[in-house]
Amino acid sequence: SRFAPLRRVASQVGSQVAMAGELPATLKEPYQPALAKFCRADPPLTSEELAELKSLLISKDALNIAKAKVKDATGKPTGTFSASAANAEGDHSESSMFGSWFRDNALIAYGLYVCDPDGPGADDAVSCIASIADFLLSSQTFKMERVICGLDDVKGPEETWMKRPHIRFLGATGKEDPKWYNHKQNDALGYFLFTRCTLALGGKMPMSGDHLKLCGQLFDYLRAIESWNDLDGGHWEEHSAQHASSIGPPLAAVRLFRKLCDAKRWLAPCKVDTIDVLERELKTALNKVLPNEIITPAELERDSDAALIFLCYPLDVVSDEQGLQILDRLKKVYGHIGVCRYRKDSYWCRDYGSKYSDPTKHFTDAELKERDAQLVLGEEAQWCLFDPMVSAYYGKLYQKTKKPEYLKCQQLFLSRSLAAITGDDCKYGPWLCCEAYYIEDDKWVSNPDTPLVWTQADLPMALHEMKNSLAA
Question: What CA–CA distance (Å, rounded) separates 246 from 441?
Fold first, then answer.
């Protein structure tokens, strides 16, 4: 087996930088030997090597997300993507990973558009965002209106969370999933708005009247719940707290929406000062929390979280100084395979698959405390969706400054992304972009949510930005 023998990551946390020399993270041998020639920190890939690499990944189906397209009863794609695509062990149809998350789909759609703005990728992006908009318009707008009018309080205990607009739905039918779920996720709404405005500004998906009204209503809702200090579930749908990663996406969306309205000379279809209030309050709150992920409540304080990389790329909602501070903090969560979501993260900790009959179970705050108690520090799962985004952001920094150290780090994190692609001995199949690796029976193995479509969409963005850097 090429799976790395179990190593205590806890001992690596403090020595990660020293082990890497001048580099912020280490690089292991790839699970796929054919990728070894591309996996290095220096020198960067040549344009010819990059083209060869992309052709190899395409030939191995590593980037093919078509099999994750959600289909209706007649077999027709509905627009969105399930969180995980089918693998050698099954198609995830009996788990929550078969659902359509706003967050995943909005970022997938953004990547499809950016990497293929005039091709079928952009068309899939439009279909994806249209499907989410249809769901919101058909069954969620009344929930927002009740909150805006003060008829419903959605900031209370768990039973109130289902009264929020649902951020995950049954893509095959376009209906709500009636099972209890933590829909307290403001970042997911922000990502939808961000990508919808991106497509409108790019001329790929002009803003229709009903979509314009929907955007205004979503912004009024985010204002009504005071999203800048709302204790939501964050990127990881877990602990109730004020998350920087939940403040950034709505702020990025507000700025794009303002830009769109200014360009089109539109009046924003929301309360007269909503856009101003949101931009001011979200910016103030974000600047207060960064470079941390959580400072409130104090008992959940978290100074490093991989979700913050999305504020750097693609949201571009932080200053260069803040971005560099985030990158410095991320050194605490880099592992030898991938990136921990955050330290003391118990999701997919050691033997998680055997501890829980339903690994996709959703946890209340009280249940999370019980789960967290089982974690041994250093045995957190290592996720594969972050390295491509770190690479892409270093690429943006290099393209702006031409500093060679940024290009070197861009190459390093692209190489880490490639090294984590599954080997021939992975039971879910070879050449797959994983969700995460975790410890099972004293070995680091891929968890069953493989391939993760979010990771599959992130890797082409890293390749895209490497192409831009080589041309800079």
Answer: 35
| pTM listed for this prediction | 0.93
CA distance 330 to 416: 15
CA 254 to chain centre: 19
Beta bridge partners of 69: 81
Tell me how many helices (H) and strands (E) the chain has.
Answer: 16, 10
Mean pLDDT by 10 residues, the chain (472 residues): 37 38 90 98 97 98 94 95 70 59 97 98 98 98 97 92 96 93 96 98 97 98 98 93 98 98 97 98 98 97 98 98 98 98 94 79 80 89 98 98 97 98 96 96 94 96 98 94
Cα torsion angle, 409, 412, 418, 422, sign = negative
Q: Which of 50, 9, 57, 52 is nearest to 30 (CA)?
A: 57
Asked if 214 and 137 count as a contact pair (C-beta separation under 8 A), the reply is: yes
Q: Enumerate the β-bridge partners of residue 443.
A: 5, 440
